[in-house]
Amino acid sequence: MEPRVDPSQRIARIASHLHPPTSQMEEISLLRRSDCRAKGGAPGFKVAILGAAGGIGQPLAMLVKMNPLVSLLHLYDVVNTPGVTADISHMNTGAVVRGFLGQPQLESALAGMDLIIIPAGVPRKPGMTRDDLFNINAGIVRTLCEGIAKCCPGAIVNLISNPVNSTVPIAAEVFKNAGTYNPKRLLGVTTLDVARANTFVAEVLGLDPREVNVPVVGGHAGVTILPLLSQVNPPCSFTPEEITYLTDRIQNGGTEVVENFASSHSCKDLSAVTRGRAGNLPARYGTVCAGPCRSMPVTKNIYVSTHNGMKYLFSLATKYANYLLCVFINFFELY
Ligand SMILES: NC(=O)c1ccc[n+]([C@@H]2O[C@H](COP(=O)([O-])OP(=O)(O)OC[C@H]3O[C@@H](n4cnc5c(N)ncnc54)[C@H](O)[C@@H]3O)[C@@H](O)[C@H]2O)c1
Ligand SMILES: O=C(O)C[C@H](O)C(=O)O
């Protein structure tokens, strides 16, 4: 027979996410995995989304809540987390959801997490480059990473906040200063570029995008996005005009979305879906590593960062791909 529990205590516990500033909510946020199991969630990953109330954060939270590998989902933002948490927590999937609002609750949001996903910060407006976001987003990422170094130094960190080419090195420096840096655990999210490349190449070839796989390496801005059109699967060939068109469209896909909105916006649906599906896309291409690009040797071999470290992929087969690689390396040499 189950021990008698005071109904008012049970109701307070279930509804705790509706009153995030209370200490009761922070206590419950420190659930152990066994506690999650007791609430119906399978044992699994503990995931925190920082910037969870934003355009990326909300659909991402929904998709992570749908992932059966996740047992505990912490939603942190400086605004609106109570509403988002209430909404997401009503989904009838296993993961337990807790909300955290504002800087005083950051440490509780991070404690014990296995994976931190960061879409916190401002998106660009039409006419802006991702670099224009640097001044605001660099500070936000730095503060959040200081919290991670303190509260969950072993967690895998996925950085979505732009400019990804800069926020990843910032995070790396914070972790180095704290003595917690592990390059295998810090990743910038560029999976969007792979999704776009698959879609645009499929359009040109008249194929189903789900059956096309285009490796995209490099960074996540303009010429640093390096689609390897000679390595497309299924094997195919393109005319020079098609190569120019595809390269330009893939490298400027984010700008295409931003320019088609009248105000501040980023590619919310595609980015959330590519992250939330975790596994459907070849994640090894969807990352920026914090390695020293300046010392990257100019070779015909392509290496990518994976969660197991740098991995050899293949040799570049075409002059055009070599040309793009040189543009990319020159960009970082000047950077
Ligand atoms: N890497 C990618 O593929 C990719 C894709 C899309 C968007 N982005 C980037 O992701 C970022 C977010 O985009 P969005 O469309 O969700 O913007 P948004 O404005 O809709 O949401 C950002 C959220 O971050 C929150 N926030 C701001 N400061 C914070 C802080 N200090 N701590 C916690 N949360 C904070 C805001 O309150 C807001 O809810 C932008 O920088 C955008 O450029 C990257
Ligand atoms: O382009 C942006 O500003 C958002 C994101 O990086 C994207 O590629 O859609």
From TrEMBL:
Keyword set includes Oxidoreductase: yes
Protein known as: Malate dehydrogenase
Family in the record: Belongs to the LDH/MDH superfamily. MDH type 1 family.
Example GO biological process: tricarboxylic acid cycle
Principal place of residence: other
SUPFAM superfamilies listed in its UniProt record: LDH C-terminal domain-like, NAD(P)-binding Rossmann-fold domains
Highest taxon, organism lineage: Eukaryota
Leader peptide range in chain numbering: none
Example of a GO cellular component annotation carried by this entry: peroxisome
Keywords: Glyoxylate bypass, NAD, Oxidoreductase, Peroxisome, Tricarboxylic acid cycle
Catalysed reaction equations from the record: (S)-malate + NAD(+) = oxaloacetate + NADH + H(+)
Lineage, highest ranks first: Eukaryota, Viridiplantae, Streptophyta, Embryophyta, Tracheophyta
GO molecular function: L-malate dehydrogenase (NAD+) activity
InterPro entries assigned to the protein according to its UniProt record, in alphabetical order: Lactate/malate_DH_C (IPR022383), Lactate/malate_DH_N (IPR001236), Lactate_DH/Glyco_Ohase_4_C (IPR015955), Malate_DH_AS (IPR001252), Malate_DH_type1 (IPR010097), NAD(P)-bd_dom_sf (IPR036291)
Enzyme nomenclature, EC number: 1.1.1.37
Database matches in Gene3D superfamilies: Lactate dehydrogenase/glycoside hydrolase, family 4, C-terminal, NAD(P)-binding Rossmann-like Domain
Subunit structure comment from the entry: Homodimer.
Location in the cell: Peroxisome
Occurrences of domain Lactate/malate dehydrogenase C-terminal (ranges): 190-264
Domain Lactate/malate dehydrogenase N-terminal: 46-188
Species name: Ananas comosus
